User: Fold this.
Amino acid sequence: MAIKQEVIDELLKGYEKPEDLLGDDGLLRRLKKALIERALGAELTQHLGYERGDPGGRGTLNSRNGYSEKTLKTGDGELTIEVPRDRNSSFEPVLVPKGETHFEGFDEKIISMYARGMTVREIQGHLEELYGIAVSPDLISRVTDAVIEEVREWQNRPLDCVYPVVIFDALRVKIRDEGIVRNKAVYLALGISTGGEKDVLGIWVEQTEGAKFWLKVMNELKNRGVQDVLIAVVDGLKGFPDAIRTVFPQAQVQTCIVHMVRNSLDYCSYKDRKAVAADLKTIYRAETETMAQARLVEFAEKWGTKYPPIVQSWRRNWEQVIPFFAYPAEVRRVIYTTNAIESLHMTLRKIIKTRGSFPTDDAATKLLYLALRNVKKGWKRSTREWTAALNQFAILFGDRLAASAR
Assistant:
């Protein structure tokens, strides 16, 4: 709604310095207070059915009954307003509901800070320092806990019927369980749709060991509408491929190259990491399986004595690595997705690191969901690369991919 120029000129009469507009008693705060109070007055008029001073209101069973003071927490600090009352106490304000002490936009500020890994104590200090607002830990918890319902809706939302690639990845998170802090695995499923968009399909905190847990995850995906996964990329845990094939029997299961590289570099000294990473790249970027095997022999000759666990790991998992070499380069790039996974991990680890441990599974899930929501905003699709990959998927998987368009 456009504001008339003469109204603006009238409001700015006497303006001399920025404080007149933005200060604690500046025009913007006074204008916000006046607009809120005027809107509440209009709500009461609608509730009563007649204007203030209207003779038609005489003899009605209800009338205006003064005001009560209320202090609101807003994004610009605390604001004291006068809320109109009615004699029967039946008036329920919509703009500022009864019992509400914070105004629109304030909750979003708390959630935004929480999503970036700030603790309750840090949020308290930040709001006090910037806005002069004293906020209790209970209020912050209530605001962030309201996200749990949003998480549940997100976790149960319908999914696409076919995903060309789904990458299953895990983070280790410290969560209190029955009075003991446990190092739990939190699994994420990063799906790539037929349109080339990346999306996290769900978050699962591991409750049971091994195949039973993974089978539960696969069944949940199927119940939410996923009929087929063309390529499932996993982190090499025992029992995971079997659980995937039980629910999606045609899925091709590929050990995640990113995990292989990441785990290998864990054995390296800092000064050797760059060189080892470069030599590992010659293996998984080889044109064929035969050439990759030759590169692995060369790697073993160069680094096997100094870092035998790296060579042993690649040889032990070789059967789960080699399906990668059967795909053309366009598909390999989609499966590898280094940037997507590493960027996601880096962001989530940075946030988790500030927390130490979480009191419950829900607390961990809530924070990860909010962080993922922020990360997703920066994801972009490479149209040219995906079009090339999709053409290859169409040749490799034919009718299975076509089923997604039905």
Q: What stands out?
A: The beta strands are 64-74, 77-86, 162-177, 180-192, 198-205, 228-234, 252-255.
